[in-house]
Automatic annotation (TrEMBL):
Protein name per UniProt: Olfactory receptor family 10 subfamily K member 1
Keyword Transmembrane helix (UniProt): yes
Principal location listed in the UniProt entry: membrane
Species this protein is from: Otolemur garnettii
Keyword Cell membrane: yes
Signal sequence bounds: none
One Pfam family this sequence matches: 7tm_4
UniProt subcellular location: Cell membrane
Record's keyword terms, sorted: Cell membrane, Glycoprotein, Membrane, Olfaction, Sensory transduction, Transducer, Transmembrane, Transmembrane helix
Top-level taxon of the source organism: Eukaryota
Transmembrane portions of the chain: 25-51, 58-78, 98-120, 140-164, 194-216, 237-260, 272-292
């Protein structure tokens, strides 16, 4: 039997910001401030929804879960990235890379399914308002969240298993700032077309199918809104969906660009820029989009702040 001279990769070296060596301290300060602001705004959203009974509705339940999911998602990637911006050696162990990939895929895939559930919630609220409390009861809401998490767990487990069962014997230099699928696959010594096809089909399942369900929901919603006689009524009804539509556009736009394009179009610098947007900027904008556009939430926030600052004995 021939002895293999190639050494198994035991750790990966991140090169995501290597071309910006002189700016890394500035990037650290900017990303840290954005991260702290994201944590703060998501914490405010979750605590306001929990404290104010007027927000104990399916829409705000999903929003609280979404905020919690985004907080966990940034926690998987951003703290390690901040440490690496100040470190000379930007490494992660083979096992640590696998855990990071599984975790962010689980949260990201669950996020996609959760947005589809939120689209269904808006569809029921507008198209079947008289049956809303029955169709979107607590058990149904919990079931939709559980299904989103189960789908995310299954996809992330299969994908990360396929990726990290490949042989890694050549380079360990990862042209990214976290363990994303395409940069890690690029380092594999060889991988079959079957594994690539399975990973691509899982991406389609996570991104295209939920997006189609959202489009079907909004086709019905727009049809119902157009039947409302007054323009004021149409505007008020559509405004309840506007925040969700903006978040859907941001999420599926960035994710589709990264995961649903041909491998020949892969560009490490382009991917790093897009990845910064959906790991740092999108979780920052989403809470602001939902809270700043929502009068009901802003009223609840004022009440919650009033109760905290001036408690009634």
């Amino acid at each position: 039997m021939e002895q293999v001279n190639e050494t198994m990769v035991r750790e990966f070296v991140f090169l995501g910001f290597s071309s910006l060596a002189r700016l890394q301290l500035l990037l650290f300060v900017i990303f840290l401030l954005l991260y702290l602001f994201t944590l703060g705004t998501n914490a405010i959203i979750i605590s306001t929804i929990v404290l104010d009974r007027a927000l104990h509705t399916p829409m705000y339940f999903f929003l609280a879960v979404l905020s919690c999911s985004e907080t966990c998602y940034t926690f998987v990637i951003v703290p390690k990235m901040l440490v690496d911006l100040l470190a000379q050696k930007k490494t992660i162990s083979f096992l640590g890379c696998a855990i990071q990939m599984f975790s962010f895929l689980f949260l990201g895939c669950s996020h996609s399914f959760l947005l589809a559930a939120m689209g269904y919630d808006r569809y029921v609220a507008i198209c079947s308002p008289l049956h809303y409390t029955v169709l979107m009861g607590p058990r149904v809401c919990l079931g939709l969240v559980a299904a989103a998490c189960a789908g995310g767990f299954t996809v992330s487990l299969v994908t990360s298993s396929l990726v990290f069962h490949l042989p890694f014997h050549s380079s360990n230099q990862l042209h990214h700032f976290f363990c994303d699928i395409s940069p890690v696959l690029k380092l594999a010594s060889h991988h079959s077309r079957l594994s690539q096809l399975v990973i691509f089909m899982l991406g389609v399942f996570v991104l295209v199918i939920p997006l189609l369900l959202i489009l079907v929901s909004y086709t019905r919603i727009i049809s119902a809104i157009l039947r409302i006689p007054s323009s004021v009524g149409r505007y008020k009804t559509f405004s309840t969906c506007a925040s969700h539509l903006i978040v859907v556009t941001l999420h599926y736009g960035c994710a589709s660009f990264i995961y649903l394009r041909p491998k020949s179009n892969y560009s490490s610098s382009q991917d790093t820029l897009i990845s910064v947007s959906y790991t740092i900027l999108t979780p920052l904008f989403n809470p602001m989009i939902y809270s700043l556009r929502n009068k009901e939430f802003k009223s609840a926030l004022r009440r919650a702040m009033g109760q905290t600052l001036y408690p009634v004995n």
